[in-house]
Amino acid sequence: MALAGSASPDSNSPMSQVDINTAHNPVLIYGATGGIGQATARTLHARGYPLHLCGRDEAALRQVAGEVAAGYTVGDVTDRAVLAKATESAGPELAGLVFAVGTLQLKPLGRVTLDDFLTDFTVNAAAAALAIQAAVPALKKNPEPSSVVLYSSVAASMGFRFHSSIAMAKGAVEGLTRTLAAELAPSIRVNAVAPSLTQTALAAPLLRNDKAVAQLGAAHPMRRLGAAADVAALTTTLIGPESGWITGQVIGVDGGRSTVAAG
Ligand SMILES: NC(=O)c1ccc[n+]([C@@H]2O[C@H](COP(=O)([O-])OP(=O)(O)OC[C@H]3O[C@@H](n4cnc5c(N)ncnc54)[C@H](OP(=O)(O)O)[C@@H]3O)[C@@H](O)[C@H]2O)c1
Fold this sequence. Notes:
about 40% helix
């Protein structure tokens, strides 16, 4: 069941010093307890956007919400009642929606089950589509074109072993990005960010020790792994009006991995 709540700014937090620009409508962030979701909440808050956060872990969500003076809704994105509740609680007009929810199940094809495929597709792609569907009326009420940011992966455009399920799901996210950009223009822009390995809980199983971090970082032309702040920076730019002529794009934040030889 979805629980709605709100938190007051913590007067000891550095973020409480931010002069919030009430001219912005709110941005609704799904996956707000995750690495990229949290980093995005902080950068959007610093830019003066009011926020409404959604996630499954109420204690973690309350902590992030307190830091960025946001309201929040607790629940699973595969529950349409949660999507409806989060959208309603976020407010009647929305400047943006960020869907920073994801899964990662890496298995050789022989061990992937139909349930694995369906879980990855449902959480990464179908839930994103339904979250946008619920928010379209509020996104359309924003006085300027509003902005949706989805997340693909470098694994949708490059082949990596054991990524069949997530690569298929993120391929669906890229198709969704382009089709909704067409369907919702000119009132709503829709773009996707495609990270390579970024140091969050999602990638932790691949980054078990310093050797793995060094080796995988070296596979990138920029010779390091991504940080959540790298992805949050582009997300914040895509939400902002400075990106008003960008829609239907899938943009890599990947240390050059998808297009540049590592050397
Ligand atoms: N990190 C990377 O290397 C990487 C690479 C390529 C793409 N991406 C994409 O970037 C986006 C953000 O990922 P991240 O790195 O920030 O991962 P993360 O730290 O693991 O965060 C993922 C978030 O998704 C939430 N989530 C998962 N399943 C959910 C469900 N059924 N209902 C509600 N929330 C759910 C998690 O909530 P809980 O805490 O409750 O589980 C968490 O808040 C994802 O779309 C991911 O696929 C990440």
